[in-house]
Design brief:
Elements: E1 4-10, E2 32-38, E3 42-46, H1 52-64, E4 68-73, H2 79-82, H3 85-91, E5 96-99, H4 101-113, H5 115-121, E6 134-135, E7 140-143, E8 146-154, E9 161-166, E10 171-172, H6 182-185, H7 216-232, H8 236-246
Parallel strand pairs: 3-4, 4-5, 5-6
Antiparallel strand pairs: 1-2, 2-3, 7-8, 8-9, 9-10
Helix pairs in contact: 1-3, 7-8
């Protein structure tokens, strides 16, 4: 049987700074896209949100598919990609929880050094007893005889990010980012520049996204506007606030 896929975008709860002030207007965190890639019987889940209620929403969605969940895969190590796997695992205890070595290293750091941050941003809402992913032996996963590839994408939202490529579906995810300095970002790019990870992707997708379909050109243009605004603000502290005011939904306070 040919593979198929579905995407569930969960809307974010409000986020607050440690002093109790609002980070930005609701929605105060980027919506999270979870992708279920499935065959006739089995499926693999890509990413799950970090708060208990949204993770349960994903678990219910996967259960409603009627598929046997073989694995969950985190595209990078930030907690809002994989904390929710612990909730999904309550429904699918035999499913593997996977990530690349880079993802696992960052995930371990998140649990040992960064939980205070997550709990301050989402007090009383973060998934409890999170399960750190296990490193994948290979960068591929077999789903009913079809190859699911885990592709290294370098730095984007954080270090050691990846995307998933399913050749038989013509499906992949990608990051519209640049690894170069802000000054280089500001010069006019060629249409393909900064999209090194998308040449294999017939159907690009983003893990942080709006609950609508955005095109790669639209996303690239929005990224360009944010880079110009960030460069115009003189200090890091003021940049964090200034960019939120200019781009309240599209930016993350810890990514600037």
């Amino acid at each position: 049987m040919a593979l198929g896929y579905d995407v569930l975008v969960t809307l974010p709860p409000p986020a607050v700074l440690p002093d109790g002030t609002s980070v930005r207007p609701v929605p105060a965190w980027s919506p999270i896209a979870s992708t279920l890639i499935y065959g006739e019987r089995d499926a693999i889940l890509v990413d799950a949100p970090h708060t208990e209620d949204k993770a349960r929403e994903v678990a219910d969605w996967v259960a409603a598919s009627g598929k046997n969940l073989l694995a969950m895969y985190a595209t990078h190590g930030h907690g809002d990609r994989w904390f929710g796997f612990a909730e999904v695992a309550k429904r699918f205890p035999d499913a593997q929880i996977l990530g690349t070595k880079g993802t696992v290293a960052l995930a371990q750091y998140q649990t040992t050094c960064f939980m205070d941050y997550w709990n301050s941003q989402f007090p009383g809402q973060i998934v409890k007893d999170v399960i750190v992913p296990t490193p994948v032996d290979d960068h591929t996963f077999d789903l009913e005889g079809h190859e699911v590839r885990f592709v290294e994408a370098g730095d984007s939202d954080t270090q050691d990010t990846t995307f998933v490529h399913v050749p038989d579906l013509g499906l992949a995810g990608s990051s519209v980012r640049s690894r170069h300095r802000h000054q280089r970002w500001l010069r006019p790019p060629a249409p393909e520049e900064g999209l090194e990870g998308t040449e294999q992707c017939r159907t690009p997708g983003r893990r942080h996204c709006r609950p609508v379909r955005d095109s790669v050109p639209d996303t690239r243009d929005a990224d360009s506007r944010r880079r110009h605004d960030a460069h115009a603000v003189p200090t890091r502290a003021s940049r964090r606030r200034g960019i939120h005011r200019s781009h309240p939904v599209a930016t993350s306070v810890d990514a600037i």
